[in-house]
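Notes from hallway chat w/ T.B., transcribed later so I don't forget. T.B. wanted the structure written out for a chain they're using in a teaching module, and asked if we could keep both sequence and structure tokens in one place. Agreed to drop them here.
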Amino acid sequence: MSFKIIFKRLMAERLAFISLIFLLVLAMIALLAPWIVPYDPAKMDVMNMMKPPSAKHWFGTDELGRDIFSRVLMGAESAIKASLFAVLIPLCIGVPVGIMSGYLGGVIDEIFMRIVDGIISIPAIILALGITGALGVNLWNAMIAIGIVFTPQFARLARGQTLQVRSQHYVEAAQITGAGSLWIMIKHIIPNISSPIIVQASFNLSIGVLVETALSFLGMGVQDPEISWGVMIQQAYNMINYNPWLIVYPGTAIVLTVLAGNFLGDGLRIALDPKHHMDEQGRNL
């Protein structure tokens, strides 16, 4: 299936396409934030503490006089980094492990899956807290923890898909012709299991934001004066009844990012599903 066809189908899913644009804009904001923020997000201004939203400060200011709008924009960087690590580490570790486990089977499958089962048995946030505590409390270690937490999911997904593809005739034909296991996994397995993995990766973009926010809120992720939406909520939650803008704007950013990731995942699931495409052709006929 060509990229052009997939993109055309994705455009037909309006919410998914809008979500894709939103995430791309968010990524650009994260990349350019140091140059586009109207105020220094870490600079204190005692003359403008706890100011409500206004023409000067669109989202208001916090208890130290820092501009909330600038801090929300800067917080996008932590969110995007967490999202990328929530996808890249599982793709680089979980998917190869799952493919080898499903294709080779036997002792390798047993060892890999018991390790995966052991990791999955631990609640994700508890595991992330434990890894971050062991490695040290900072953003990079939190992102590594996020990636490790989601690696077993990708491993099990890749294994399940590989077990289905392994029994196909083209794989058996490649085995008969003497092709090596590595060649078969690269040439035949990976291309034919990529669709569900891409969909899962898109969902993980939003889940990574949630886990990073939770870790930062609990003091195990981004540390002040670095900026994260989770840190902003942690600093503001005691004042929500008096100054709601302190928590509403970073909270809204989290909600929109999570929704965008979920809508994009749904759209990709439809765009990459050949059965949906065949049903659509049948209706057109």
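Follow-up for T.B.: The longest helix spans residues 68-104. Might be a good example for the class.
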